[in-house]
Write a structure and sequence with these properties.
This protein has 210 residues and is an alpha/beta fold. It has 7 helices and 6 strands; from the N terminus they run βααβαβαααβαββ. It is globular and about 55 Å long.
């Protein structure tokens, strides 16, 4: 099959989104408002829904719930390598709670992407994990399906969008460095949104927002 479509969808709203937590590694469920918002988007018919689709999640509760709400109780596979970045000891805290702490500030304002929060991972470690995890996902997916849907997280989706297609800084118009994982935040989709990637003969040739 020369052309296939990969649909990357971010999970719905959680308590962490509502409270502006620094979080990624904790396995929290969707908030009731997140469930309702996903159902409303589903009813608008915005999601790719084809019979010839293989389904995946990162395995975290919020992605499992999102898949079920959007597509029903589908058989699916899980790829833990596509989980969100882990912030370690900073998980489930806000900026206002932590600001002024010298250890936190060193991590927050790190320009190298190499500072590791205790119990978590650095931005560069996250980049390496997602880059390898996506290659694993491409190897493991069933190529007999013309569509593959992966429900995962904003960070991984934003990073892949950056690496595969690049883009420009909306303020300066300058081309963004695809190798700097900090630029992934330009492409993190809203909860319940994502991108459809077009894969032709082993190369990514197109990207459309969901």
């Amino acid at each position: 099959m020369s052309k296939t479509y990969l649909h990357l969808i971010r999970h719905g709203i959680t308590e962490g989104n509502q409270k502006n937590w620094i979080y990624g590694g904790i396995d929290i469920p969707l908030a009731p408002e997140g469930e309702a918002a996903l159902a409303a988007l589903r009813d608008q018919g915005i999601y790719p829904n084809y019979d010839d689709t293989e389904y995946w999640t990162s395995g975290m509760r919020r992605t499992e719930q999102t898949l079920s709400i959007l597509f029903g109780p589908r058989p699916h596979r899980r790829i833990p390598a596509m989980k969100e970045i882990s912030f370690g000891i900073y998980e489930a805290h806000t900026f206002d709670e932590l600001k002024g702490d010298p250890v936190y500030d060193r991590w927050l304002y790190d320009k190298t992407g190499t500072v590791v929060p205790e119990g978590g991972e650095s931005v560069m470690q996250f980049k390496e994990r997602i880059t390898a995890g996506f290659q694993e996902f491409l190897r493991l997916r069933d190529p007999s399906h013309s569509h593959t849907t992966l429900v995962c997280h904003g960070g991984p989706i934003g990073l892949l969008r950056l690496q595969l297609f690049g883009g420009r800084d909306p303020k300066t118009g300058k081309e963004l460095d695809r190798q700097d994982p900090r630029n992934m935040y330009y492409f993190v989709p809203d909860p319940g949104r994502g991108y459809t990637l077009v894969l032709e003969n082993g190369s990514f040739t197109g990207c459309v927002a969901i």
